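Question (not urgent): is this output format expected?
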Amino acid sequence: MPTGVHLRDARQQLFDAAERVLLRDGPNGLTSRAVTDEAGCAKGVLHRHFADFDAFLADLVLDRAAQLEAQASALRESAGTGTVAGNLTSALTTLFGPVPVAIIPLITFRDELRARLRLARPGGGIAILAQATTAVSACLSDERDRGRIAADTDVDSLTLSLVGGGHLLFADRDPGPPSAAAVDRFVTAVVADAVRRRPAEGS
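Got this back:
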């Protein structure tokens, strides 16, 4: 049996292979054999770097969650420019991209993975959704500080509405992601009251 190619950066290449399998075949298709076959390496390579497959998946999720945090930091720079709804539409579209949306059901249906994520970091059991919630909350807080939404806006409740509804919009992978217009309509409706009640300029 061939042992496959040598992986120079085995962890990252295995993560990238798992991501491709997840996007193509969904959570049910993500097995250790599928990952190593996709990476073109022997199955033993994965077990040399990770205690077991759930340990691999936990590190994969945390790696992608860290990438999402970096993207969320960049999104905050848009606060105060354009429109509030436009900024939040861009944020949801990034935060619920194909990879995060594919990872969420993986976490939901693997109890052992959730347990390991909770041990790895506070709130880790709902990694990805936790990153999305933190990012949207930060965006709303920044816009409130700039007076672009009402000062008495309940940021926590508005965040839950945007993240929960946003996840539902993006969750069905088969027909593809929702259109930008559909996301914008949803966000505009959710934030309409907070935007409408902000103080008028110069008041």
